[in-house]
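Below is a filled-in request sheet from our internal design queue. Each sheet records the structural input a requester submitted and the sequence that came back. We keep these sheets so that new team members can see what a complete request looks like end to end.

REQUESTER: design group, bay 2
PRIORITY: normal
MODE: inverse folding
CHAIN LENGTH: 178
BACKBONE (tokenized):
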């Protein structure tokens, strides 16, 4: 079915908007697609803060060309579905990795982390990262450790002095000289 120039412009504007709102974009090929499988994946991706859409290859390539992003030759030869990570790129990569692990329907081809092109292996490595809340907790722990050690180091002389004063006050008074 042929699209009018206006319709193509609308579609490309939508693709560009999805791309601009995303922290990462993952491109997958699909075959033997049925709506039950697509809807199940869409629901999971929506819960993870992302979107997934079947794209027109030619129009999506034009958007990538407009953004001056490269893609491997043959990358858009087959039917493709694109996932857009709006919130948590590693979380969505983990979800896609689990979805494609034993699937004959989907296969991860590659994508973009920001504007950096990444391949399927890098997406799988990204999926192995801990979730964003865990990374934040680890970072906060690393930042708090030196501050806690500094506070203990600074408080130690005063604590020792307080112990000496307490021991002295609890000891029996010395006899008066007379």
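RETURNED SEQUENCE:
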């Amino acid at each position: 079915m042929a699209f009018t120039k206006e319709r193509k412009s609308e579609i490309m504007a939508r693709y560009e908007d999805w791309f601009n709102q995303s922290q990462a974009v993952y491109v997958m090929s699909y075959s033997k697609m049925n709506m039950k499988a697509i809807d199940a994946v869409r629901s999971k991706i929506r819960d993870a803060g992302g979107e997934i859409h079947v794209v027109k290859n030619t129009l999506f390539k034009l958007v990538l060309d407009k953004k001056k992003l490269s893609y491997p030759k043959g990358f858009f030869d087959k039917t493709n579905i694109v996932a857009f990570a709006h919130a948590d790129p590693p979380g969505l990569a983990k979800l896609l990795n689990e979805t494609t692990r034993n699937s004959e329907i989907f296969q991860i081809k590659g994508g973009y982390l920001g504007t950096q092109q990444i391949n399927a292996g890098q997406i799988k490595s990204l999926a192995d990262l801990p979730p964003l809340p865990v990374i934040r907790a680890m970072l906060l722990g690393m930042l708090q450790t030196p501050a806690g050690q500094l506070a203990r180091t600074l408080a130690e002389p005063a604590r020792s002095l307080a112990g000496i004063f307490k021991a002295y006050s609890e000891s029996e008074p010395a006899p008066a000289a007379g």
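SHEET NOTES:
- The CA atoms of residues 74 and 117 lie 15 Å apart.
- The two ends are 116 Å apart (CA to CA).
FILED BY: M.R.
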